[in-house]
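Build the 3D complex.
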Amino acid sequence: MGRSPCCEQAHTNKGAWTKEEDQRLVAYIKAHGEGCWRSLPKAAGLLRCGKSCRLRWINYLRPDLKRGNFTDDEDDLIVKFHELFGNKWSLIAGRLPGRTDNEIKNYWNTHIKRKLLARGIDPQTHRPLSASSAAAGTAPGQQRQQQQHYLPRQQDADRAEAAAASASASGSPEVEEAACSRSSDDERAAPARSAARRRHLDIDLNLSISLAAYGPHEEEEEEEEARGGAPLQDAAAVCLCLNSLGHRPGVECVCGASRSRQQQQQPPPQWSARSFLQTAAAPCYRAQ
DNA sequence: AACAGAGGCAACCGCCGGATA
DNA sequence: GTATCCGGCGGTTGCCTCTGT
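Done.
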């Protein structure tokens, strides 16, 4: 449609952020909250485009960011979520409290990819490298080409398989629809079906168990209490529906299990693949 | 000590899709 | 129904730091 980019205005800074810019942005968001990113720079007196401000805030300045090295548990979770979701970094980030999509993406590209390759595992397909090559049975160049075109499709089919398996257990309409939307690809991937089903059921179980350790942290509880909110102890369980694995403080699950009476009276939002991904990125920790 | 290459990470770019006029 | 706005996402780039020679 040819919309002009939002950052075309002259007189906008680019590159690394200065301390002063950071302070201005933080002060503005503390005072006014996150809102219209397009108008924020002007209102905050920043010579940056809105996108740049948003990125800086989300990836670096947000107070709930963890920073620091990834733990082994986080490593494992990232690998498992990547196997489940592919390169949906925001989805993965939504399930790792205090981590950003950019951080996880960088970490994947710099650490985990290499680690998996060293273990002889294809980081895209999560299958043994030898098996991938053998399946192709062609020259290396051709293999690469085939992997690019075939394997992502195979991966989609696998995810749909996992979604379908989980849907039958959870009854989640979103997941069922997600699985259905992949059905044509699924048919092409029929030979791997039963193996994939077993593998992903296993993954789902592992995720449920791993995530049990991701209840609210002590600091979060203290912060919440300091703000005058209800203590979080009564909300320490993890919602285990597929679309809300993990937790994010203060954000409730979209599955409906933990919605308030008032919220439940409101009609659920229209489902779409994109909205599913977006809402699923803000999972709850409140199970009933 | 100087240099080159690799690694890590912050930031940018271009695209997509929902919302809205 | 169409055009545009806007927020968000994933891929990519470029700079800085680290490490080995």
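DSSP finds 14 helices and no strands in chain A.
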